[in-house]
């Protein structure tokens, strides 16, 4: 029996284990904390990412390694790769861990990006703001997630506050300044690439964020076919350049009908959770098929799906479970402000039915504001 090792034991590892259990796989998860939620379904090794004894035990017990957490030190991934197959490769991981390396690669491939500049000092920040202009966003190059490690500058007057907020982190994680994009939409391509180079995207997804955290996703996104084709071209090119194996997400802004790449997530992605019920094969199962060199499943969508993230605490499940296409995912985490604790997916055969279901669920849960932009998009206003 094949054992898949997963570095990081959060909800992504948990959903991977749940989705691929029917394939007869076993899982072993490594995390730095003992209450990692994937540990409810798979044995867990607790250890620091640089703890060689823990890594060694992990490597000796698994046939292949993958990630639920993109910030595992690239050196630890490399150490493992010398002992056991690791997918995606430590190189792909290293590029995606650094916003500067990632944006530089996008540029090399001709994928449009917002203006950006590396920042190493307060003077460097002043120069970068002068070049890029305001509004702009200062971000840590490494270790940011869910909008953490970011500071938005509305004008030059915010330079001091931005440096006070993030300057101390510059030596350790590096900083990058990006032009602020007044986008009409945020989109993502979630796609899988097999060991043999076969590439399959799920339908383009539209995403809504609140305070930098994903709130809702709609698939298929309501966009012109040409825009979806361009997004798929960028994703395919990127995956090929990195010789990527597994599922990844390319986050995109759409402004004036043009795409600008934001970032690459080298793993299954929150904006692909809808694929569990909304596609022929989910991102989780296809990720494991890719990592194991198995044939990839069809990524075609089954009607229209909307995923709603539950942040902080779980609402009552009844309203979602009462819908014909309602699906509930409780990650088994304790409630905490800002924490992703679960999600729901509503699936319907038509956009009109999906909009109606979202209105009912939004009203029942007091989440009208969360569903409103999705309903508006579905109703085409
Ligand atoms: P994730 O959880 O997706 O990994 P992250 O912490 O890596 O998040 P980003 O994806 O860079 O952060 O930013 C989070 C959100 O903030 C984006 O989805 C977008 O809504 C907004 N944002 C980030 N960069 C820009 C930008 N340059 N212009 C406009 N909005 C932006
Ligand atoms: Mg990110
Ligand atoms: Mg992001």
UniProtKB/TrEMBL annotation:
InterPro entries: ATP-grasp (IPR011761), ATP-grasp_carboxylate-amine (IPR003135), ATP_grasp_subdomain_1 (IPR013815), PreATP-grasp_dom_sf (IPR016185), PurK (IPR005875), PurK_C (IPR040686), PurT/PurK_preATP-grasp (IPR054350), Rudment_hybrid_motif (IPR011054). It is an enzyme of class 6 (ligase). The keyword Cell membrane does not apply. Residues 103-292 form the ATP-grasp domain. Pathway: Purine metabolism; IMP biosynthesis via de novo pathway; 5-amino-1-(5-phospho-D-ribosyl)imidazole-4-carboxylate from 5-amino-1-(5-phospho-D-ribosyl)imidazole (N5-CAIR route): step 1/2. It holds the Pfam family ATP-grasp. ATP binds at residues 99, 139, 144-150, 178-181, 186, 209, 262-263. Its EC number is 6.3.4.18. It catalyses: 5-amino-1-(5-phospho-beta-D-ribosyl)imidazole + hydrogencarbonate + ATP = 5-carboxyamino-1-(5-phospho-D-ribosyl)imidazole + ADP + phosphate + 2 H(+). Homodimer. Catalyzes the ATP-dependent conversion of 5-aminoimidazole ribonucleotide (AIR) and HCO(3)- to N5-carboxyaminoimidazole ribonucleotide (N5-CAIR). This is N5-carboxyaminoimidazole ribonucleotide synthase. The gene is purK.
